[in-house]
Amino acid sequence: MATLQIEHPVTDFNTWKAAFDRFADVRGSSGVCGHRVMRPIDDARYVVVDLDFRSAQAAREFLAFLQANVWGSAARAPALAGSPQTRILETADMTPGS
User: Fold this and answer.
1) Which candidate, 90, 68, 85, 65, places its Cα nearest to that of 7?
2) Does residue 97 lie within any of the structural domains?
3) Which domain holds residue 64?
4) Rounded CA separation 52/82 (Å)
5) How far apart are CA 32 and CA 72, in angstroms?
6) CATH number of the domain where residue 23 is located
7) Cβ neighbours of residue 27 closer than 8 Å, sequence gap 6 or more
8) Residue 66 resides in a domain
9) Which residues of the chain have pLDDT under 70?
10) For the chain, N or C: smaller number of CB within 10 Å?
11) Strands of the chain, DSSP E
């Protein structure tokens, strides 16, 4: 399993979340098999997103899609503030039920 982790500031979480939700079908057809949206408890204008994939290659391809087609467009990425920081992670150890 591989996880594409994305983090960035947002100007308004509800606006950002609505845009995130509109891309659910795209995420599914791109191989996302699970996701988590997290926010720091002390910063309502920041998000951390984990997108899970079955392979690192699928994560790389989806990251390239986001960079080329989403993040450069204010219409497709409303409330995005600043440049997203990304990394692709591989699971090294996991507790059952996690």
Assistant:
1) 85
2) no
3) 2-90
4) 23
5) 21
6) 3.30.70.100
7) 35, 51, 62
8) yes
9) 98
10) C
11) 2-9, 34-38, 46-53, 85-90
